[in-house]
Structure to design on (244 residues):
C-alpha cells in the first residue's frame, strides 16, 4: 500500500504489535444516524425544468404599442406538499403581433428567465424595471396610474404576479390609515361638490377611476390622486401627505 504524504514530516514512530491490537479491539466508529429530515430544495440554476409548469398570462395594452403584449410567467413549485412549499417564477415569455420590438423583448425575457433561475431574492428586478423611463414620455393606465415606459409596465406585471404567488407582500395599510384616507376624501369631495355646483362645466372630466378631476400625480404611488387640502398636497390613494 502506498500513501502519498502531503504534509511535512515532523516525526515518526514504528507501529508496535500492541498498537495494532488496540486498534482492532476498538469498535469501528458508527456514524450517528441522522434523523430523517426533508431536504428543502432552494431555487438554483441547475434545477431541471419539470415537464409542466403553472403560470399566468397578463395582457398589456399601451398607447406606445400598436398591438397588445402578452406576458406569460411560469412558476415552479418547490417542496410541494411540505411546509416548505414555495412557488417561484421560473421563466417569462412576451408575445406580440408587433415585430418592431422583437429583439429587445427576446433579450429581456431571456435575461429575466436567467435571473429567475439563478435563485436568491429575485424581487429586485421589479424595482429595476419600474424605474425605466421612456424618453418619449409615459402614459396613464386606467385607474390613473402613471407608467413611465413599457418596460416599467412589464415590471408592474411581474410585481403583480409575485404578489399573487406570495413572493412580494404588500405593506399592510392599517385600519386607522384607511379611515384617515376615507375621511380626507369625503372632506375633499364635499368641498369640490360645492364648487361644481357653482360651475357645472367643470364636472364630467373625471377619467381617473374615482379620483377627483384635477388630481395630480402622486410621487409615492404613481397615481393621479394628489389633491390640495388645507394648503397641503394629499394623496387619496396611498395617504401620502406633503405635510407629514
Ligand atoms: Zn399616493
Amino acid at each position: 500500500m502506498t500513501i502519498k504524504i502531503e504534509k511535512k514530516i515532523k516525526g515518526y514512530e514504528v507501529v508496535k504489535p500492541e498498537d495494532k491490537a488496540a486498534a482492532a479491539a476498538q469498535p469501528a466508529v458508527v456514524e450517528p444516524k441522522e434523523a430523517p429530515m426533508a431536504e428543502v430544495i432552494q431555487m438554483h440554476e441547475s434545477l431541471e425544468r419539470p415537464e409542466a409548469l403553472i403560470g399566468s398570462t397578463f395582457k398589456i395594452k399601451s398607447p406606445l404599442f400598436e398591438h397588445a403584449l402578452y406576458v406569460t410567467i411560469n412558476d415552479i413549485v418547490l417542496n410541494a406538499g411540505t411546509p416548505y412549499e414555495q412557488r417561484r417564477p421560473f421563466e417569462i415569455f412576451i408575445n406580440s403581433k408587433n415585430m418592431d420590438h422583437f429583439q429587445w423583448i427576446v433579450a429581456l425575457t431571456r435575461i429575466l428567465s436567467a435571473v429567475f433561475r439563478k435563485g436568491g431574492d429575485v424581487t429586485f428586478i421589479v424595482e429595476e424595471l419600474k424605474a425605466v423611463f421612456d424618453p418619449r414620455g409615459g402614459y396613464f393606465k386606467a385607474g390613473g396610474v402613471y407608467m413611465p415606459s413599457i418596460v416599467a409596465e412589464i415590471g408592474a406585471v411581474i410585481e403583480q404576479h409575485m404578489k399573487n404567488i406570495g413572493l412580494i407582500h404588500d405593506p399592510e395599510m392599517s385600519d386607522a390609515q384607511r379611515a384617515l384616507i376615507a375621511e380626507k376624501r369625503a372632506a375633499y369631495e364635499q368641498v369640490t361638490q360645492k364648487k361644481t355646483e357653482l360651475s357645472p362645466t367643470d364636472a364630467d372630466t373625471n377619467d381617473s377611476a374615482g379620483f377627483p378631476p384635477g388630481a395630480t400625480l402622486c410621487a409615492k404611488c404613481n397615481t393621479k390622486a394628489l389633491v390640495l387640502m388645507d394648503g397641503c398636497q394629499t394623496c387619496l390613494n396611498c395617504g401620502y401627505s406633503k405635510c407629514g
In short: Residues 175-198 form the longest helix (24 residues).
